[in-house]
């Protein structure tokens, strides 16, 4: 077992454990902090796959910007564990059973899929570097790139209009 | 690394997100679980992009680069979605003084 496999399993365990903690922790602030750990683990996976640009962007955008926004909103609302509305126990159980059934179906479907022997390269390949991604982004994908700026503008205007009411 | 392991990991993360959406009532935590599901899909896209790069490395140098660009655009859309969604949650909190999604069934009246 070489170092990249050890890292893969360690990062997977970290991602899954903290994702479970996001769902089960009572305090929303703790949920946000666990979600940040999940994003760090996923960024580690990106870097392990040599997708360095996405790894760093994931950290900056998700762990840096989006999660801070969540944290701001939670602290603005002054939520804590006591005011958290509790769902019916049976409804919670039904949610867990439904998610488990989806997991079962997807894993069973994967057993039939023809993915045997396909390998995702770890640590090699240069398609994840900024140079190649930037070149593709500004040649083949330049129209969606410009459209995303309009999307951001409309999202900004929408957030301000909703927040002003 | 075999692609199946990445698929299993992404499926597990996605299902944890589904359970969170179904079992919790706090609107912010539901929103965070949606982000978790988006990230599971992103991870799978990057793994598949590396898989296609490994398969087509002799034919085209940039094989599989589309997957990583899709991840980039998913992040763009997620950032826009979060800004609007959190604004909606803040407005809902101002109106009802709660982030319980069960209060939202008043929308039907």
UniProtKB/TrEMBL annotation, chain A:
- Enzyme Commission number(s) from the entry: 7.1.1.-
Q: Which Pfam families match?
A: Oxidored_q3
Give the matching Gene3D superfamilies. Answer: NADH-ubiquinone/plastoquinone oxidoreductase chain 6, subunit NuoJ
Q: Name one GO molecular function term.
A: quinone binding
Instruction: Using the UniProt record, give the first listed, main subcellular location.
Output: membrane
Q: What does this protein do?
A: NDH-1 shuttles electrons from NADH, via FMN and iron-sulfur (Fe-S) centers, to quinones in the respiratory chain. Couples the redox reaction to proton translocation (for every two electrons transferred, four hydrogen ions are translocated across the cytoplasmic membrane), and thus conserves the redox energy in a proton gradient.
* Native organism taxonomy: Bacteria, Pseudomonadati, Bacteroidota, Chitinophagia, Chitinophagales
Protein topology in the membrane? Multi-pass membrane protein
Which transformation does this protein catalyse, written as a reaction? a quinone + NADH + 5 H(+)(in) = a quinol + NAD(+) + 4 H(+)(out)
InterPro entries of this UniProt entry?
A: NADH_UbQ/plastoQ_OxRdtase_su6, Nuo/plastoQ_OxRdtase_6_NuoJ
Where in or outside the cell? Cell membrane
Instruction: List keywords of the entry alphabetically.
Output: Cell membrane, Membrane, NAD, Quinone, Transmembrane, Transmembrane helix
Annotated GO CC locations: plasma membrane
What family is it from? Belongs to the complex I subunit 6 family.
Q: Where are the transmembrane segments?
A: 6-24, 31-49, 55-78, 90-110, 141-162
Please give the coiled-coil regions recorded for this protein. Answer: none
Which named protein is this? NADH-quinone oxidoreductase subunit J
EC class, as a word, reads translocase
UniProtKB/TrEMBL annotation, chain B:
Cellular compartments annotated: Cell membrane; Membrane
> Under which EC number(s) is this enzyme classified?
7.1.1.-
GO BP of this protein:
ATP synthesis coupled electron transport
The molecular function terms of the Gene Ontology recorded here are: NADH dehydrogenase (quinone) (non-electrogenic) activity; quinone binding
Residues that span the membrane, as ranges: 6-23, 28-49, 69-93
Its placement in the membrane is given as: Multi-pass membrane protein
Its recorded reaction(s) are:
a quinone + NADH + 5 H(+)(in) = a quinol + NAD(+) + 4 H(+)(out)
Classify the source by domain of life: Bacteria
Tell me which InterPro entries the record gives: NADH_UbQ_OxRdtase_chain4L/K (IPR001133), NUOK/Mnh_C1-like (IPR039428)
Chain segments annotated as coiled-coil in the UniProt record: none
Q: Which keywords, in A-to-Z order, does the entry hold? A: Cell membrane, Membrane, NAD, Quinone, Translocase, Transmembrane, Transmembrane helix, Transport
Task: Quote a single Gene Ontology cellular component term.
Answer: plasma membrane
| PANTHER family per the UniProt record, alphabetical | NADH DEHYDROGENASE SUBUNIT 4L-RELATED, NADH-UBIQUINONE OXIDOREDUCTASE SUBUNIT ND4L
What is the stated purpose of this protein? NDH-1 shuttles electrons from NADH, via FMN and iron-sulfur (Fe-S) centers, to quinones in the respiratory chain. The immediate electron acceptor for the enzyme in this species is believed to be a menaquinone. Couples the redox reaction to proton translocation (for every two electrons transferred, four hydrogen ions are translocated across the cytoplasmic membrane), and thus conserves the redox energy in a proton gradient. NDH-1 shuttles electrons from NADH, via FMN and iron-sulfur (Fe-S) centers, to quinones in the respiratory chain. The immediate electron acceptor for the enzyme in this species is believed to be ubiquinone. Couples the redox reaction to proton translocation (for every two electrons transferred, four hydrogen ions are translocated across the cytoplasmic membrane), and thus conserves the redox energy in a proton gradient.
Query: Quaternary structure?
Result: NDH-1 is composed of 14 different subunits. Subunits NuoA, H, J, K, L, M, N constitute the membrane sector of the complex.
* Family according to the record: Belongs to the complex I subunit 4L family.
Name of the protein: NADH-quinone oxidoreductase subunit K
Origin organism is Niastella populi
What is the name of the gene encoding this protein? nuoK
